[in-house]
Amino acid sequence: MRVPFLDIPGQYKEVRHLIDPAIAEIMETGAYVLGKWNTQLETELAQRHGVKHGIALNSGTDALRIGMQAAGIGPGDEVITTAFTFVATVETIVQVGAVPVFVDVIENTFDIDPDLIEAAITPRTKAILPIHLFGQLCDMPAIMDIARRHNLMVLEDAAQAIVTSQDGVMAGGFGICAGVSFYVTKNLGAAGDGGLLLTNDDEVARRSKSLRVHGMGRERYYYDEIGYTSRMAELQAAVLCAKLTRLDAWNARRAEIAERYQAALADSSYGIPYIRPNNECTWHQYTVRHDDRDAIMAGLKEDGIDSAIYYPVPLHLHEPYAHFGGGAGSLPVTERVSKQCFSLPVGHHLSDEQADYVIQRLLARQSVTA
Ligand SMILES: *Cc1c(COP(=O)(O)O)cnc(C)c1O
After folding, report:
1. Distance CA 75, CA 93 (A)
2. 111, 138, 183: residue to mutate for ligand 1 pocket, most atoms within 8 A of CB
3. Per-residue pLDDT tens digits for 244-290
4. Whole-model pTM?
């Protein structure tokens, strides 16, 4: 049996009756930028997330960078985050002129350990940037409490956490702003790149809208500050609006598959993800841990099952970021889970038979390598 990691064309087939006419209309009218599909996407997602503003952008990376800049983070500021993330989280901190400060993660949730944050705070600390990794929110009550007591901003990396909530509050409803990604492989994926900034802050929203068009002010060709080109193409917004009609159904199917994995692997030698009881998980990835990861992944490949490593090397061990961290050994949990973690297919394209086959092969492979 073949179990592919993703089925991107399969998503298109489900909504092509919405995408094809929308694309034809855009091409025929010539309304290529900042049009009605941008507005619809921004409005619907701001509403879903329970925040005042959604600002459609070129990428999730731009949402983080523009959000940070609009929130006033810049040279001299320190931003506390983790090294167990996609590079964009940390790259954008550096790009706005700030300094990333890494703290370790929790082993079975892969996200920032709130107990370690306070020791990393200095007089230069301006913000905490938690990453809602793999489709579940970080421990936000603990993080928000620390931020309040130390007068810090919180910015959320919600790239992997669209329509994901904690205690009924969606990503973006905690910090000053949150960046969402629509990269192809995300739960809601564009036909290329796209991103969204979510915020309740009117000034952050105003500045972000200006920054996405070169820092232009109210008047055309007059500039308030130095900005970027970061508009979302209408073609992308139309694709996203079409797929958004299926997102809840797709996420529900992801949850069914993930729960099948959770039950079947609970008593195995695999470390399974822990989902906080107050979290609604959207399972962007289903990620397990095992000391024999590489042998098991090679075995699964022979079995026809795709798997992938998010992320093989933590950011403080990459040359361009090494000087921000304390080197090998400085983030023991991050470094350990980077060697153990691997993600299994969990998309809505999987049948029950495929999910059961994954489970059966995982259980067989663990005894062979044990
Ligand atoms: C995907 C991702 C980003 C960046 O989003 P792009 O749309 O690819 O620019 C940032 N952070 C995390 C955790 C991501 O997974």
Report:
1. 10
2. 183
3. 999 999 999 999 999 999 999 999 999 999 999 999 999 999 999 99
4. 0.97
